[in-house]
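Structure, all two chains, one model.
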Amino acid sequence: MPMDKLVAEVLAGNRRALARLLTQVENERPEVLPRLTALFPHTGRAHIIGITGAPGTGKSSLVNALAKRLRAQQQTVAIIAVDPTSPFSGGAILGDRIRMVELAGDAGVFIRSMATRGSLGGLARATRDMVRVLDAAGFDVVLVETVGAGQNEVDIARTAQTTLVVEAPGLGDEVQAIKAGILEIADILVVNKADRPGALQTVRSLKMMVETGHPAARERFAAHHGRLLPVPALPAGDEVSLWQPPVLQTVATENTGLDDLLAAIAQHRQFWHSGSRVTQLQERYIEIELYERLQQALMQRFVQALPPELVSATLQQIRARRLDPQSAIEQLLNQVETHGYPSSR
Amino acid sequence: MPMDKLVAEVLAGNRRALARLLTQVENERPEVLPRLTALFPHTGRAHIIGITGAPGTGKSSLVNALAKRLRAQQQTVAIIAVDPTSPFSGGAILGDRIRMVELAGDAGVFIRSMATRGSLGGLARATRDMVRVLDAAGFDVVLVETVGAGQNEVDIARTAQTTLVVEAPGLGDEVQAIKAGILEIADILVVNKADRPGALQTVRSLKMMVETGHPAARERFAAHHGRLLPVPALPAGDEVSLWQPPVLQTVATENTGLDDLLAAIAQHRQFWHSGSRVTQLQERYIEIELYERLQQALMQRFVQALPPELVSATLQQIRARRLDPQSAIEQLLNQVETHGYPSSR
């Protein structure tokens, strides 16, 4: 089969083609699927770094500062800013403009903002696919910036190899990440705006938490969720040392602390590429992705097979409390099974 | 069929039985399903109020103050505090203790905290079922408190008839809800800690947003997500006026502003029970619930039919980039379809 023109252009480094393909991914266009398949063998080379934190921690400035440093090291950088803000704010577009000015004209940087439209599950899926496209397009580093706000960030963090959780002192609450439940996903903890009062206290709190509760955070995260698919148990294997997330201080707007941060990122990258635990973790991420995609595919087929009149009669019965939701789905499953799925997929 | 003893006890107002059933719901025990079915016809009487907001807005104090006021009006109150904080914090247990002291000894109040364990999707489902149990148990009002942090709150808000989004001045960011993307779910906006500097500015920002962008927020939310199941289009019907979320100020710790808040809640409740749009919205919520439950049931059956060796071979092929995830699920679907599902459900 001859290679798709758009795919060939993306692989050749054509930026206009890249932007077009990313838009197709974001819009979940069906023609994107064979293109992602064609690009997949070219992925796996980029270092994917997630940056997440509460609003006000200065994570966009940190992303900018990191991008500039990486460029100074001759690395090409792609930035995906995922901003699940309300449709009122238009935050994504504004963020884009500010960044554009700062990093403008550098052909080694590619910036893309995504606003949420539709489901957040769709957003995580689209982000994962966009990261793959940018990886295949040959960027050395892909920075994925998200607002730290729970499940969505956990989902997006799964696409990253190294996840930075950004805090800042004096946000009214001692440590934002604990409240948001995103501390578990941190490979590196960054206290940004470290020239502000209270910085040392924030550092101390984070260090204490890392020391007391964190050592096997990522594994705990995995155990927490249980296996999703029937995977045979892996051999116990050789024990490797676990990653202990360092707590670093930065002032992104003044480029302070960035050398240490880059060093920690490099160390974590090395950790990621060594040891059997990490292999297990990678496999686990793939398992989660397969699970999510299967769920979507199964639902699509089932919904196509449902007669609309049956659905609307069921909804009415539930509203009238003559039927409860659990019994309702048993009826719907029986119905579709008796009459069969539509033959084609 | 004779009525299940636990169900009969819950309906008779036995608190110990209620607590036991709620624990079964939280742990997703299979014996809970017939019990929920038996309780379902007894639901639909309670007024369900969701309270959500960023950490630091004082929403727990607001919940307490509201509960006390409602008790003074002779209404029985159940509180579910959903606290998706990190396993490090133990926030749920602590919150429980503080509340217990304040509302202790009042038989007209029932308090239950849930910490996240496992999937957040599971949490939303468990919350929905717990609200139903409390509704069937005869509470006049069920207060559901969540930390405002994205998709999870949107999911939980779907169980509420009236959703309060709580803001506070001086949290470092002008309006927290915009960042978290939860403004759309607000029926009533509350600026708590309104005695702090900056309160009027927060009120002004929220009012402006409500006036410029919000009027049909809930409908926009619905349209946004599209239909999930094949439901025949409803007749255009008579137009009813839409709900415009009011912006109120409170100081919960001093019981200031609570009369206005209770009045707004009562107004919204009246709105909820009138007009065809609201009926459509209720139907929409049921549709979402059915969709989620179907998804879960379909996945369960499919996963049971997957041979473990096939899954592990597939994971390895993807890791080696010899197979992409999308093609992988097509293979898995084909495989299960050819060999069939296990016969029993």
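The two ends of chain B are 22 Å apart (CA to CA).
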